[in-house]
Structures are given as structure tokens and as C-alpha cells.
Amino acid sequence: MQISKILNNNVVITEKDQAEVVVMGRGLAFGKKIGDKITVDKIEKCYTLQGDESSRIGELLAEIPDEIFVITDKVITLAKDKIPGKINDSLFLSLADHINATQLRAKDGFVVKNFLLWDIKRFFPAEFTIGKKAVVDIAEKFGLPDLLNTDDEAGFIAMHIVNSELGRGDSSASELTKLMEEMLTIVKYSLQVAINEEDIFFQRFVTHLKFFSERVLLDDAATLPSSDDSLFQMIIKRFPESYETTLKIVAFLSKTRGYQVAKDEQTYITIHLARIVQKNV
């Protein structure tokens, strides 16, 4: 691989399989110039750029301090280790740009309010925890202790991670959060029981709801283990109140999104709801 752009001593741009790639490694570009070959044994991380990222890579990354790249890489490494599913490489550029903008605003005393913070904490605890760790690093590296006074920035970083998981645009996390909140509202009003959100059965339902919501947004059919019709009939007869709530979710998704919920999915949702009811009655 040959160097096509040098961002700093530790980060360069090269091409691989006709795509631009961010390559990181300590001292990777020291003493190098454009056109030189990259020392392979110094490569620590590679991130493939996608879509319109390549056209704006130069102006964006040239403005970003090396410390931001280190923090960004740490966030992505943690996310890949702690969160199931694929973390898209495009997270590198968008997150580095976001973190840089955050530290610049914080230096000027500006803090952006995250109006989805409460839901992010509820629905995406793993992503939020990673965001909290990133904020500590940002505050320490750039001398910004006021960043630690709120969880707003941790929530924004979590949203970037969720967007990457979904592999869609910047609105994905907010759209997913909104859909989950809408379905949980249906559940609470329909079941009419005091739900303990710290309960393990509720947490399992939220996890299921997250992946179900992703499928709805992608208009993708469920890939759940197939259940025969006899199980479905048994479940709806045994838990009629829970199934009634499931049907309200089914009707809501059909009306608002044109999404048809398969019987297997209805079975799993009903089972989750029945466990919540039994635990909270």
C-alpha cells in the first residue's frame, strides 16, 4: 500500500480495493512522503471510507488533532468488543468529526442539550457506557472538566454508535428510539400494570424490542426460530391479555409503517409481555 495523503505522523490515507482507507499506527508516517510504501508491521488499525466520505476526507481530517483519532479509535475498539453486530467503519470519520466539534464548542463554553438522553440511557445502555468513557477521555485530554457535569455528550456518542450498528444515516438512532418509545407506550397503557424497568424480564423485552425495531425500520422480515402454529395458538389462549397488547403493536405498525408482523414475532412478543405481567402483578 502506498501513502496518498499524510494527516499526521500516525495517520495516513491509502487506497485498497479501489476505496480510500484510513490507516493508523504509531510513527507510521514519520519520515515518509506521498507515494512512499506503508510499513506493514506498523499498521495498527484500518478504516474503510464509504460514499461521500472520500470527497471530504482531506478538509475534515486535516483539521482534527491527533488526540481525537486516538479517542475515536478507542471508542470503536470498545464498541466492537462490547456490542454484538457489525460496527460500520464509517463511524471513524463521523465520530472523529463530532468529537472534535464537541471539544471546540466546550472550549467556548457551549454545551448542546440532548433531548433523547433519557431514552438512550434506557434503550442503549452498552453504547451509553462507552460514550461516558469517551467523555472522560475528552475532558482529560483537552482540559474540559465541565463536560463531565452532564451526560448529554455521552448520549450523542452513543447515538453515533447506534447509527453505525444500523448502517444508516444520522437520523437512525433517533428514529429507532422514537419507534421503541411508541411501542413501549402502547405496552404500558394496554397492560395497565406498574412495570419495574429495572426488572430482568423488562430488560430482556427492551433488548428484543431493539432488534425488532431495527427490522421494522429496515422493512426486513424476522429471522427468529420458526414456531409451529400449535405453539402460537397455545400462547394466545394462555396469555390473552398479553396477546391483546401484541395485536395493538401489530395494528400500530401496520397503520403507521405498512409493516406486517409475522406470527413467529407475535409469539415472541406475547411471551415477553406475559413474563412482565406475571412479574409485576
UniProtKB/TrEMBL annotation:
Residue intervals of the PRD domain: 63-170, 171-281
Entry keyword Repeat: yes
Taxonomy, superkingdom: Bacteria
One function term, GO molecular function aspect: RNA binding
Pfam assignment, any one: CAT_RBD
Keywords: Repeat
InterPro entries: BglG_antiterminators, CAT_RNA-bd_dom, CAT_RNA-bd_dom_sf, PRD, PRD_sf
GO biological process: regulation of DNA-templated transcription
Full protein name: PRD domain-containing protein
